[in-house]
């Protein structure tokens, strides 16, 4: 048999896998034990760590629920085999946050054919046959970043400046949508110039750093960097700092985790970030609704929020960080 790598560490994970007395939740037949399999794309990025943490915390409230999380190690092939294995185990609900859309669509369809309810989280697949999709609206977030950019560069109709956009993974819906929303707004401003051809930073800080290092060498005047997530924006900031040019450039990111994006905004390294909530806890709640025979929404959109100098400190305080 093939070896599988599952993560179930820490107290919360342990509690999540305990099967004790019937839960007081609405989770259908409380004498029945449910097994949810969650295929997570990676566990190295901080946003993913928070995602799993929230999910395990929610699952731990339900003693009759066992949550198994697999780590796709940021590779499509690994994630496909993780999902195959959940199908073989006949989990009650499959949750998946895919590396990319195209490569994971086939195996998601396979799970649906096997009559397993599928909840897709954050990054989408190329089918809408799943039971539910839960995530932020990345077009809306992109537009918010676009509006913020226009404001920073002089306001509607008068905005002027050179912009570098650093993409997340180009084969993912969040990157496409974050571009789309942003472009919808800034392309209306004739004074705003986009300097680079789309460049794939695969959501990674190091790639943001490298792409920005090249951009700094090619362009004498860069006014604003729009990173598709906070790590990319921060990588770009570090590159500008190493080139002694960070003070002339504004940096915008997305995610808004207190200990990363919000902290960078509070320190004045990023100008703003836009919250992209982790969908794990909601995924558990919807999965239990499915088990209870309740109807769930086909699309559940999580809200965003703009974080800049005006509210960063307050958010850190509320998170117990500053
Ligand atoms: C983490 C991450 C987040 C980003 C999301 C998009 O893996 O890169 O930073 O917002 O995925 O799917």
Number of domains: 2
Average pLDDT for all residues: 92
Biggest pleated sheet: 7 strands, mixed
Distance between the termini: 49 Å
CATH class of the largest domain: Alpha Beta
User: Could you list the spans in which at least 5 consecutive residues all have pLDDT below 50?
Assistant: 1-25
Detailed description of the structure:
There is one protein chain. The chain has about 325 residues and is an alpha/beta fold. Helices cover about 40% and strands about 20% of the residues. It has 11 helices and 13 strands. Strands 1-3-2-4-5-6-12 form a 7-stranded mixed beta sheet, with helices on both faces. Strands 8-7-9-10-11-13 form a 6-stranded mixed beta sheet, sandwiched between helices. Mean pLDDT is about 90; it is low at about 1-25. Beta-D-fructofuranose binds near residues 48, 174, 203, 254 and 255.
């Amino acid at each position: 048999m093939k070896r599988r790598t599952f993560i179930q560490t820490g107290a919360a994970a342990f509690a999540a896998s305990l099967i004790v007395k019937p839960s007081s939740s609405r989770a259908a037949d409380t004498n029945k034990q449910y097994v949810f399999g969650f295929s997570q794309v990676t566990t190295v990025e901080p946003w993913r760590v928070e995602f799993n943490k929230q999910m395990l915390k929610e699952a731990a409230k339900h003693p009759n629920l066992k949550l198994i999380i697999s780590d796709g190690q940021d590779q499509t092939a690994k994630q496909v085999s993780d999902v195959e294995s959940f199908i073989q185990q006949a989990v009650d609900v499959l949750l998946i946050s895919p590396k990319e859309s195209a490569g994971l669509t086939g195996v998601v369809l396979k799970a649906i054919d096997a009559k397993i309810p599928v909840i897709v989280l954050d990054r989408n697949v190329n089918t809408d046959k799943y039971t539910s999709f839960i995530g932020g609206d990345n077009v809306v977030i992109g537009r918010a970043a676009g509006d913020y950019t226009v404001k920073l560069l002089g306001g509607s109709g008068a905005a002027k400046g050179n912009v570098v956009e650093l993409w997340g993974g180009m084969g993912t819906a969040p990157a496409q949508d974050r571009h789309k929303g942003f472009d919808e707004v800034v392309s209306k401003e004739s004074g705003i110039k986009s300097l680079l051809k789309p460049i794939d930073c695969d959501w990674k800080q190091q790639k943001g750093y490298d792409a920005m290092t090249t951009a700094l060498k090619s362009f004498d005047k860069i006014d604003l960097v729009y990173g598709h997530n906070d790590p990319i924006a921060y990588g770009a900031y570090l590159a500008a700092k190493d080139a002694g040019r960070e003070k002339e450039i504004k940096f915008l990111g997305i995610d808004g985790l207190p200990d990363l994006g919000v902290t960078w905004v509070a320190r004045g390294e990023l100008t703003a970030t836009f919250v992209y909530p982790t969908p794990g806890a909601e995924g558990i709640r919807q999965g239990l609704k499915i088990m209870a025979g309740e109807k769930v929404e086909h699309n559940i959109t999580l809200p965003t929020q703009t974080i800049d100098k005006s509210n960063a400190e307050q958010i850190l305080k509320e998170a117990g960080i500053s």
